[in-house]
Specification:
By secondary structure, this protein is of the alpha+beta class. It has 2 helices and 3 strands, in the order βββαα. It has helices at residues 32-49, 52-58, and strands at 8-12, 15-20, 25-29. A 3-stranded antiparallel sheet has the order 1-2-3, covered by helices on one side. The longest helix is centred in the middle third of the chain and has 18 residues, at 32-49. It is flat and about 50 Å long.
């Protein structure tokens, strides 16, 4: 089964951190591509070993990615 999840990637120091907010699983890499690939691997390993109950307990199904405008200064 293929499941589409969110990946938020941001620069941290000299590398990148990738986060899947639906399951609060993160990974890192030297490049955006590496961080994304490492996150995918971490998620696949999680789904391999996690029980169905653990998957349901960790799942945050309502994740919304949007932007906001704020006044600065």
């Amino acid at each position: 089964m293929i499941r589409k999840l969110t990946a938020i990637i941001e620069r941290e120091g000299n590398g990148y951190v990738a986060l899947c907010p639906e399951f609060d699983i993160a990974s890192q890499g030297d490049t955006i591509e590496e961080a994304r690939a490492n996150l995918k691997e971490a998620l696949e390993l999680f789904f391999e070993v996690a029980s169905p109950d653990e998957v349901l307990d960790r799942l945050h199904p309502d994740v919304f990615v949007t932007s906001v405008e704020v006044t600065v200064g």
